User: Fold this.
Amino acid sequence: MSVAIIGVGLHPFGRFEGVSALEMGAIASRRALADAGLRWDQVQLGVGGSLGVSLPDSHGDTMADSLVGPLGLTGVPFINVANGCATAGTAISVAASAIEAGQADVVLAVGFDKHPRGHFNADPAVHGLQPWYGELGMFVTTQFFAMKINRYMHDHGISHDTLAKVAAKAFRNGTRNPNAWRRKPMSEDEILSARMLNYPLTQYMFCSPGEGAGAVVLCRAEKVRELTDRTPIHLKGNTLRTRRFGTFEVFSPSLAPTWTDAPTVDASRACYEQAGIGPSDVDVAQIQDSESGAEIIHMAENGFCEHGEQEDLIQQGATDIGGSLPLNTDGGLLANGEPIAASGMRQVHEVVVQLRGEAGERQVPNEPRVGYTQVYGAPGVAAVSILTR
Assistant:
């Protein structure tokens, strides 16, 4: 890929009374442009998403292309994208493809959302399901996550203590991240003894719907020196895959007799091949952690270990900031919450600042050179990016 990232920006994640999703998106976009040293009128294409507009009772009140209002009416083409929790990964994929196709040299990718409290809700019919699926409570995502990790723990020997360690790490990392929502550390005992929501996952093993925004400025690698003095971070791989028959996904009303690899596995393998590297080359990674179990499962699905090896790796501290495979160094979804369309942008922001050596208290040691991001969303979409300096 001949695509570079030259600017990143965030609006902090959390709850912000009186600040609209659109305002957050504009703030993140301006920060990304400032980081790149560029003006909005130098952007030749915008790509973005805001899922709140499509969710019932959400505070999301706009489409992403409405950003051209507060940013400036320059006539720039803008593409709206929506792919569940993989929306940001999709926006970056579209942006990179446009650059490679010669349609633009400078592209802004952005995601922002503002969700109400409580679990995510939607209409089963939107996903091709009958009303009974929602009426029986099966459309509540916490149940899916719990069923999936409960079976995984049984099959691969993952302990409840390891679930708690994942969450404790997330909150510990969140204390070092000024943009995180939850910045108070919690012990493993506190997490384990908290209210059980859906067995085996307690209250603090789940992320929460939230508010926030993230933006990334991408450009043609050959044009970097003409545009900015920023050290570029190269997008070496970017892939997007949907589910195949036989996978166990969010909103699956039934299971096939035999299981098939999840879309994350397909996207990950394709991205490693595209980038010309393997999992052992990755120095820092941000992966989907909608709840503690998701991070554990995705460790294997992204090729970082075999199924079941997570137990020893996590117990030994391998996924801590100073470990052999630092994961979710900014606190991930557990500490930041999930404004759906913004979360993948937050991942890319974190990898970029880590590769630049600008992550402050949460900086991964030994000058990381290869970063990795992965998002997974309903009803079974995965996006993976590999970045290098």
Summary: The chain is about 35% helix and 20% strand. The CA atoms of residues 299 and 305 lie 6 Å apart.
